Amino acid sequence: MDSDLILVIGLALAFLSIPSALSAFSDGRVPRVSALTIVIAGAMIIYAFRSHPEGYTLQDIPMAITHVIARYRFW
User: Fold this and answer.
1) Residues 12-71: pLDDT tens digits?
2) 3-class DSSP state for residue 27?
3) Distances in Å between the alpha carbon of 57 and those of 40, 54, 63?
4) Which end of the chain, N or C, is less packed with Cβ atoms under 10 Å?
């Protein structure tokens, strides 16, 4: 798989699991599924950073997101 795609999926998973974790904390439940999702997202992000030939900087991340959206648009 493409490292840009893995990075974007990992970032999306991490971003989408935050509300689930906050909801579990506010209800007094243990956030098992959201914690697992955050761990998987973190592993995907680390893998993408290590597998990209030049590495990523903070300035490269928005461009990677834009390239993935442009490449895999569904409309």
Assistant:
1) 999 999 999 999 999 999 999 999 999 999 999 999 999 988 888 889 999 999 999 998
2) helix
3) 21, 9, 10
4) C
List the one residue out of 35, 33, 40 whose CA is nearest residue 10.
40
CA torsion angle 45 46 52 57 (round to 10): 80
Helices (H), the chain: 3-27, 32-51, 60-71
Q: Residue ranges per domain, the chain?
A: 3-71
- Measured over the CA atoms of residue 64, residue 70, residue 71 and residue 75, the dihedral's sign is positive
Question: d(Cα 28, Cα 14) in Å, to the nearest integer?
Answer: 21
